[in-house]
Each structure stands twice: as structure tokens, then as C-alpha cells.
Amino acid sequence: MDLGIAGKWALVCGASKGLGFGCAQALVREGVNVLIVARGAEALEAAAAKLIADGARPAAASVQFVAADITTPAGRAAVFAVRKDFDIVVTNAGGPPPGDFRDWDRDAWIKAVDANMLTPIELIKATVDGMAARGFGRIINITSSAVKAPIDILGLSNGARSGLTGFVAGVSRSKLAGQGVTINNLLPGSFETDRLKVTMSGAAQKSGQALDVVMDARRKTIPARRFGTSEEFGAICAFLCSTHASYMTGQNVLADGGAYSGTF
């Protein structure tokens, strides 16, 4: 299927590895020009080299990268100094650490909200008007399945990402929807990422069990009986960015192998 986005420009955040890299890879393979961002310069440069060397990448698809902390004003300024206008924006920031809510002070909450709610909002604010003027725009916020099924040790993430979800529910249904701009959230369940290992390590420590035991127990709770891959996550992202998804906006798309048992 031709997704109809070859030649578009995409900003993909947190793209040096994991789900962000999976999204960048899927877009590049569709002929999209990408600017990838992450804090770690070495890992980001390696990710860019991998994208450029990808045999499925059309030769015309450009790959650029900026090592910056997208959650800071300086980091966003560095990105927009390289390129101001984007047709596609994939927001993605590492989730806050797991723990007991009794241990989190105001600074911990502010940091979580800043990274996982306010940063996506700033990126949306910086790009949607240009998208609307051109008649095409796709914003995908990588959030978490915890927005639908909160996880007790991820209170910081539950709160901050739910705030973003509420914001998107409103802004996605504004006049932007009639100007060719869609805004959707992509909710990952358990994927083979460093983030999963951190979360599972926290659960292992809390339960006193070995990490392998906790990981295996999590797999057994997933109807698919496995963790997801960044490549298949990227494919979902690419579809939401496509011309075929133009009638989808304000949605929370859950990718969790069937783990969420609710009807809605």
C-alpha cells in the first residue's frame, strides 16, 4: 500500500532507539524525509547511520539528526533552527521513573508533566499552523497503554500522559480537523524496549523476584504471548501518518497484543 507521504518532512523525537526509532524507520521506508532527535549524540548518530544504510529506504529520503533535549526550550530551538516546518511530528519522551507516589515531591511531578505533557503541547503549538496552511499535517503522540489501564507504580506517567490525552481530545477536534491536520495518540503496551526493562526491574525489586521471572509473568498476561517489536509499532505509526488515515483524529490507538481486556 502506498501511504501517500513520500517527500513529506517528519520530526521524530526520542528516535535513537526503541519505539521512536521504529517510527523513524517506518517513515523513511515510505520515502519520508526525517529529522530525528534524542539526547545521546553517539546513539543518535548511530541510529541515523542505520536509517541511511537501510536497504528499504528510497534514495530520495533524507535523514538528518539533532542531538538535543526536546523537553527544554533550548532543545526545541536547536531543532527548529535546522528546520522550521514539518508535515509530520511524532512526539516521544522517555517516561518518568516508576515508584511509590509517597516518595515523589513537587519537582518530580513538574519534571514528568514538563516532559510528557507540556513538551508535546509545545511541539504541536509550533507546527500545526504551518500544517494547516499547507492543508496536510499529522501529529502522533507516543503515550502509553497506562492511559487506559493505569499501572500503580507508574503514577507520574499515568498523570502526565492522561493530561496530554485530555488536551489532544479537545485540540484535535478544533478547526484543525477541517484543515487536513490530524492529531492522534499511539498507546504502546509491552514492547521490547529499554523502558520495559526499567519498569519490570522496578516491579521485580518491589516483589523480590528475579527480573526474568517477572518478564515471563508479564508475557503470560498478554494474549499474543509475546512482547511487541519496535518495527511493528513503527508500521502502525506510519499508517496513522498516511493519507489513508485522514478521517482519524483525536483517537487513542492501543497496541498491546490484546492485554487490555475492556470493551471500550
From TrEMBL:
Belongs to the short-chain dehydrogenases/reductases (SDR) family. InterPro entries: NAD(P)-bd_dom_sf (IPR036291), SDR (IPR050259), SDR_fam (IPR002347). It comes from the Bacteria. This is SDR family oxidoreductase. Signal peptide: none annotated. SUPFAM superfamilies: NAD(P)-binding Rossmann-fold domains.
